[in-house]
From TrEMBL:
NCBIfam families the UniProt entry points to: tonB_Cterm
Stored Pfam families: TonB_C
Annotated signal sequence range: 1-19
Top-rank lineage group of the source organism: Bacteria
One GO term (biological process): transmembrane transport
Organism of this sequence: Pedobacter cryophilus
NADP recorded as keyword: no
Keyword Signal: yes
High-level lineage: Bacteria, Pseudomonadati, Bacteroidota, Sphingobacteriia, Sphingobacteriales
Identification of the protein by name: TonB family protein
Amino acid sequence: MKKLFLLNFYILLASQIFAQEKTTYYIKEQNRPVSNLDSADYIRTIANYKNNEGLYDVFEYYKDNSKKRIGNSLKNTFSPEYSGNVLSYYKNGNKQSVENYTKGKKNGISNYFYQNGNLKKKIEFSVNEKKEEVELMIQIADSLGKNFLDETSSGRFKIIDGNNEIEGEYLNGNKNGVFKTHDFNLNEDYLDEYKNGEYIKGKTTDSSGKEIEYNKLFVLPTFKGGLQAFGKFLSKNLEYPDISRRNKTQGRVYLSFVVEKDGSLSEIKVLKGVSSEIDTEALRVLNISPNWTSGTYRSKPIRVSYTLPISFQL
């Protein structure tokens, strides 16, 4: 009975179970935290103390306790800032990917595999002056092991990747020309045009034959007016709790939420808090936020999970 009481006591809104050595999160698809194991697709644990390399150990598990991902993070927050090699696994135990990170960005050679163990893609990542990930395809293959690109990383390919059939061309490792994708689940067709790796435009033909054209594949949700406007909103509405001010309590609250298709915010939770008073104030302010501009994928509004830090400093 005592153990059950302690377990229930430490389950917080952000689904964190604080132990002496690690923090545990229950997570659903799209990196969305949930409040209990039954609702989760997998589990993430992040060490509360640095290892001998000055990093925080990160482990992810499927619900049957088989390994999903192993890596190291520069921060012990809900969303890891990976550094070094990160290994991901399919449920059958085979490797899904071996990725290399520098300061939270993919950098260097990363390999991706089919569930049968054969190589799917070999990609060289770099980070440009805008701190954006840039990818250069080294090799792409089908599930039977057939390689499509030559020694210059050029050539046409056609593969089945999950629920999609994809075909296109790489020129010196860059996407070039028209990429055709058919989504078997949605019965939709996508045409995406590239020039030397740069996205030009795209078109979706849905199951009814309706066509939608667009110039960007994915657009993140934003506070209307941008970061500066959001900063003004926080400055105007945040009220430092009196008890926290008297106790000189300060810190950064990490919140997670979902930006819905209409721009409204839902599922607002504390991922990592400072104190009950400060956490409550952070939740209150985000709950009165005006609607955001929703994210889009292929010009269609989508739900997007978001993680946001709010600082309280005296």
